[in-house]
Design a protein that fits this description.
Layout lengths: L9 H24 L3 H21 L6 H25 L4 H23 L10 H28 L3 H21 L4 H24 L11 H32 L1
Helix pairs in contact: 1-2, 1-3, 1-7, 1-8, 2-3, 3-5, 4-5, 5-6, 5-7, 6-7, 7-8
Length: 249
Amino acid sequence: MLNKVPEVTATFWVIKILSTTVGETGADYLAVHVGLGASLTAICMTGLLIAALLLQLNRRAYVPWIYWLTVVLVSIVGTQLTDLLTDKLEISLYVSTAVFACALAATFAVWFGVECTLSIRSIVTTRRELFYWTAILFTFALGTAAGDLATEALGLGFQLGVVAFGALIVAVALSYTIGANPVLTFWLAYILTRPLGASLGDLLSQSREYGGMGLGTIHTSIAFLTVIVGLVAWVTFEGDGARRAGPAQ
């Protein structure tokens, strides 16, 4: 089958960051404002994620709307995993961050041991895709835990969190331009965009008394989802146009 992951472009990173923000604000909206609670939200979103994953795995090539729907749902479920450990089980953010870091490292170790590559340019078998989505889930969970640890437990706050994680991503991008390993820099950036998006989501949605801008989770989620839908539609039409032009050329 063809590679099941999109090309890593500026649009890819924009949609990824927007997806992580929706994961943060969307999970908060469903759990708090809708009143589902963390446990029921996690159950419902996990069911939707499984359905989206089955749809994604059954495709033989990259389909933009299916892929990004799965990413958004993984973002919400990853957020809920961390929230359940922190709020329900009262596990320290230091511990959950370490646990998810170890789980991600173990996933990468097994993936590389079996496939001899961690490159997203070669997601061309179902087994590699399963490794890929497992890693993606743990990057979201780790990013959520690390982001909460930095902005809440360590007291950075939302504004400094956005600046700090944004600066780290810039540093990773600069290291890539001077010859750092592309696979390593991709996964580092992928992990860091999660706490960046979460900090951005909290900055926009949380009330002013908690250091946010007070836009609310529903308005922030709708605004970012609208942009995601627009970008995914644009990527889809652009891809369709390229495929139609290919035979003619």
